[in-house]
Amino acid sequence: MKTEERYDLGKLVTYKPNKRLPIYNWFRFKEAFSPNFVKLMLSQFDLHEGTWVLDPFCGVGTTLLASKERGVNAVGIDAHPVCSFVSKVKTRDYHLETLKESKRDVFSRRFEKLDLKGIDPLLRKAFSSYALEDVLFFKSEIGKIKDLVVRDFFVLALVVSAMRVSYAVKDGAVIRFFKKKHPPLRKVFRTTVKKFIRHLRKAEFKPCEIVVKQGDARRLDFLETESFDSVVTSPPYLNKLEYTRAFDVEEVLLKELIGIDSTKAYLGADRERGQGVFPKLDLPPIAKAYFSDMELCLREMYRVLREGGKAALVVGQGVFPDGIVESDVLTAKLAESVGFNAEKRIVVNKRVATRERTVKIGVALESILLLAK
Ligand SMILES: C[S@@+](CC[C@H](N)C(=O)[O-])C[C@H]1O[C@@H](n2cnc3c(N)ncnc32)[C@H](O)[C@@H]1O
To answer: Are residues 224 and 183 part of one domain?
Structure first.
């Protein structure tokens, strides 16, 4: 496999550029990549209107939204209920007049205090009682919306607004709680809804089909064999497998507001698995389980791609106390073992990795793997 260094592309595989991009910035997700990375890959793979792209780890829908800008059809799968919900809401087609009418309705009634009895303890920790009372009041207002697409739009805006006034602070996979003064939730919610509608009004999408499903990338039996022209994705990073714990408050909020399926299927979760992959390598058990799961995911990607189809995977190397695990190189090896031709590894970022904050372990790379069927 050829290796190329392109540190000029480093920023494109991070969330940073999305912070200022309408719709892309509706939900902050540090693990996301940017639409310009996706568009670069769509161009490189010559994907035009009418073709199909798959993102089996779609996160908050960057691949799907960028494809929608290009008129490329896309399917996105994510195991996390919050991610799949966010992806759905960001990529749907809306009738703006209906959203505006619903906005008038939702904000027209006078506040009514509802009983907080029976509310989830995590929500009590994460919010002031004023904020929670507002959440419950708006839950009942949003509940009156009959059109589920419109209802979900308001639910996402409410969750995002609630997080703005919440006591929760994310610290990697851990959530800490700090009480603080906050503006009234109804004010933040109204501003957020207005902003979301403004973003939609300015968006330039081309007609195409976008499908989002909560599911497991290891088992894509609902997708037809050889039905995609390309895969553009980024699997969870080896030593950041539990980062989705950081969305526990959003998840409980969503459960409270609309009820969601919380089944999760994290790669590497079953540590007993994977003793057979890379038998000669002395990998930590979680890494073995992870690669054994990755093999299943790659098999599925290979199956659903058409002959000649291409895949781009953004992969970060794993940092462990005993050293760096070269996940990009190992993923490429697995890809070849299931039939792919690993055409190129483009190294886009390198970071010094330390143990106990000071002891240098090595340099961890982040790469784009280009694969072909
Ligand atoms: C690196 S993030 C992808 C971010 C995405 N590229 C974006 O721009 O938002 C990896 C995603 O994989 C999801 N995931 C983890 N295990 C999964 C599985 N077994 N099947 C599908 N998705 C999974 C996580 O929930 C996470 O959203």
So the answer is: no
pLDDT over 70 for what percent of the chain? 98
| CATH code, domain with 7 | 3.40.50.150
Q: Which atom of ligand 1 is nearest to the CA of 236?
A: 10
Cα of 213 vs centre of ligand 1, distance in Å, is: 12
Q: Is the dihedral of CA 66, 68, 70, 73 positive or negative?
A: positive
| Backbone torsion region of residue 118, taken as left when φ is above 0, otherwise alpha when ψ lies between -120 and 50, otherwise beta | left
Q: What is the pLDDT of residues 111-160, one digit of tens each?
A: 888 888 889 999 999 999 999 999 999 999 999 999 999 999 999 999 99
Pocket test for ligand 1, best of 31, 55, 65, 300 (most atoms within 8 A of CB): 31
Domains in the chain, number: 2
Domain ranges, residue 175: 96-202
Is the same domain home to 155 and 197? yes
Q: Which atom in ligand 1 lies closest to the alpha carbon of residue 244?
A: 25
**What confidence score (pLDDT) does residue 333 get?**
97
